[in-house]
Amino acid sequence: MALGVGSTIDVNSLVTQLMQVEQQPLTALAKKEATYQAQLSAYGSLKGSLSTFQSALSALTNQTQFSAVSANFADTTLASASASTSAMAGNYSVNVTSLAQNQKLQSSVPFASMSTVLGSGSLSISFGTYDNATPPIFTLNSDKPTKTIDIAAGQSTLSGVRDAINSANAGVSANIINDGTTNHLVITSKDSGIANALRISVSDSSGVPITGNTGLSALAYDPSATVPITNMAIGMAARNAEMTIDGIPISKSSNTVTDAIQGVTVNLLKTGTSTLTVARNLTTAQTAVQSFVTAYNGVNKTIHDLSTYNLANKKAAPLTGDSTLLLLQSKLSGILNKPLSTAGGGLSVLSDIGISLQTDGTLALNTAKLNTVLNDATKDISTLFAAVGKPSDSLVKFVRSSTDTKDGIYPVSITQLATQGKASGLAITPPTIYTGIDDGLELTIDGKSAVVTLNSGSYTTASALAAEIQSKINGATAFSSAGISVTVSEVDGVLSINSNRYGSGSKITSITGTALDKTFGTEVDYTLGTGLNVSGTIGSVAATGNGNTLTGATGSRASGLAIKVADGSTGTRGQVSFARGYAFELNTLVGRVLENRSLVDGRVQGINASIKDIGTQRDAFNLRLTAIEHRYRTQFTALDSMLSGMSQTSNFLTQQLANLPGAAK
């Protein structure tokens, strides 16, 4: 039976209206959920803004952003220049008279084709300086190890030898030049300068003598030999860059000069004269400070928009009165209002450089005041932004800090300077070394061992032998792959090996081999030594030494504060003024806010839990509404049936009464 058919009652309308009343709690839940969703979206916007803020702050925690130095030549075609923060401002007159050149050797013997067979064997390539004597004396470059290139039988052609040289990473490159009819092999030193001239020794497996100028021996070059060997000709002589800076003569092996003017790198392009100007790069610092102000104002605007009550519309923002947001806002302003009394740059508050906090919470920058500070060489604004330690001793360098390092002024005292591992022998007479007889040394340096083979021949001076030993040690793969290198020196005929590392890890523990007697004496004659770590105190608390780096003790206020003591003496070494700058502190705070399980993360999780709970309530209430609607329809179905029956009874009675006698009357 259709509802309402048996009666005049609009049952569907009644049920619909009743259910609308029953559903009012769902509307309240939806409104509550919308509020939570708005808060969730607001926190998403906040985290996005904080992430952008953190990206800007990360760059500002680098002190070089505020202390950049520019270096420029008036004639940019003469040279280019760059400067580090250690460069001092000034003008320099630069006169370049010669550019550095790489030596090029070309084969004197022409080869018919690239497939011409030279032979197999090996090439030993050494780097050094030839003097002007006749024959010239070759002094080995002790910083460049001799390299041996094996030429296998399958590489014996002209092109094969070229490829073997290029794949050996031996400090040279090889090319084949065709003059129109024949081919020439050209070997070029990869580094320029007179100290990188080439000496090439050949071992030809076919037995061709090195003086024969045939086969592989055609690549031999040693004008310093008793009988000069010049099977290759000089195509381009090794040459140093020659110049004067303010009238002072300077000779460098490379056209890239890094150590003529402190902190300045000069790239020479041609000969000529120009003025080099080194100055503080104010633009970089200005941009960095403005970036800080802009980044802070950006996050401040986001917080304002998410929390401010609109009086005109009488409408609250999603996070109006939110305790988490208010706490974050308080912490941000708290950092900015805290003076950095231990900063070592002569500045302690942002207003010192023209940054002021406005009543609306934003920052404003007075560029004129900022420029005044930037032009003051006694001020270092990086200490206001980055976590910077400023040592008062010029031989003490700030290395790093940690989040555990507390602001403070820490006195430094050194009880032991770092030393290097060392081995020294007896005074020797410059020896003659013979191949396979007394040319081997086995050394254990910094925990690694290797065998080196010295070049045979007569060494005219002990210093020449020292250069050979240094070259071979530094060229040994076992050492170089582990970052181990040494300096071999000679004083009054006594050879000494110094590990280039500092501290307890720097040690020479063994020297043996067939060449020992001729280089250091017998094993009982030489002395071995292990380096010592720097030791001392930072902030009057014993610090931890590692090499020449001293780090504040864990648990102390100077925990994580690392300084490098390069030289000087033991005893009191001044102090280190340390402060965690505003950008560093803000970056740390924002990082904690954005990390998992932070206060904001907890708030977001709470909102998500509330939204999930509303969903659970809604599902339960919808089930209840279904039951209520079913009950209403059941009740109205019964009512409709009852009214229908009564209507039928009424109609029947009416008909019966109408048929009674006299009913018409």
Structure, explained:
The chain is of the alpha+beta class and 665 residues long. Among the domains are: 103 residues; 64 residues, no CATH class; 133 residues, no CATH class; 108 residues, Immunoglobulin-like (Sandwich), CATH 2.60.40. Helices cover 31% and strands 29% of the residues. A 5-stranded antiparallel β-sheet has the order 1-18-3-14-15, with no helix packed on it. A 5-stranded antiparallel β-sheet has the order 21-38-23-33-34. It has a 4-stranded antiparallel β-sheet with strand order 8-9-4-13, covered by helices on one side. The protein is elongated, with a radius of gyration of 43 Å.
What labels describe this entry?
665 residues; alpha+beta; five-stranded antiparallel sheet; elongated
Number of strands: 38
Please state roughly what percent of the residues sit in beta strands, choosing from under 5%, 5-15%, 15-25%, 25-35%, 35-45% or over 45%.
Answer: 25-35%
The class by helix and strand makeup works out as alpha+beta
Our measurement of the CA-to-CA distance between the termini, rounded to an integer number of angstroms, reads 39 Å
Instruction: Provide mean pLDDT, rounded.
Output: 90
Q: Provide the gyration radius in Å.
A: 43 Å
Widest sheet: strand ordering: 1-18-3-14-15
Poorly predicted residue ranges: none
Largest sheet, described in full? Answer: 5 strands, antiparallel
Task: Indicate the percent of residues in helices.
Answer: 25-40%
Indicate the overall shape. elongated
Count of discrete alpha- or pi-helical segments spanning 4 or more residues: 12
